[in-house]
Amino acid sequence: MVWMAAVEPRLAEVEYVEVQCKSALNPVKNMGFSWSLNPYTGCEHRCAFCYVRAFELRADRPSDDRYGRTVRVKVNVAEVLRGELSRRSWRKETVVIGAATDPYQPAEGQYRLTRSCLETLRAFANPTAMITRGPMIVRDIDVLADLARRADLHITFSIPTVDDDVWRKTEPGTAHPRQRLRAIEKLVSAGIDVGVGMAPILPGLSDRPEQLEAVVKAARAAGATGLWAGMLHLKDGTREHFMAVLNRHWPELVPRYEKAYLDRAYLPPVFGAKTMREVARLRSVHGVSDRRRVILKPPPEPEQLTLLN
User: pTM for the full model?
Assistant: First the structure.
């Protein structure tokens, strides 16, 4: 089988489409939490391995290298969120921001919707979690620190690798991992609970012991309160794009991936167990907790498309 792909540019022209949303909170199943919030649909980071590409394919939207070139901006999301948190039926469950798109992608610099949603969650003292690759988050330290004093708050910074070559070729629109680590230092200094998600680990690309140790040591040095790790998942939509990127930059690994992910989305333990044991060993050696406050994993069922609404 032959996979083809164009080089992903570091910067890409992105169309912002302003929309009115009917709901801000999305019910979630099989992800370890019950409610998600996504101020945007689509993500300018355009990571080659993003599991959201699978949902885009099911929703009949581009999942290939066109993904992330159009971002839908939910301009009324904070107003709708305020109404939902005001309901008598609302039980102050944890709201996870960024399960299906990065809340601190470049669009946030212009629209400030994530900040507005955080201000609303702060007003209701609602437990909140967030996952991001965006150092822009330090802009909102004031709101985050205040929210953390009123309710449970946990931030996860996604840092799959600190290897420059792997980062540049698989996360074309993201900030350098070192910028994320500096953001963690600032957040922790402000009293905010921040962990690292070392995921996805890419077999043959970012799973060498020294690469894993580099992330663990960097997380420890930045003051991260914990680190969890996970191997790459490849569902239809994500699979085609990732394999095309792999073929362009690391063609010698294509047969290995085709064997490991043959007719399956999840890597069998025989291919990933050694890596996960090494991560556990490194956490122990460097004194980094494996505490994972909110489980964020690629949802297995089609009904999870509600994440993208």
Answer: 0.89
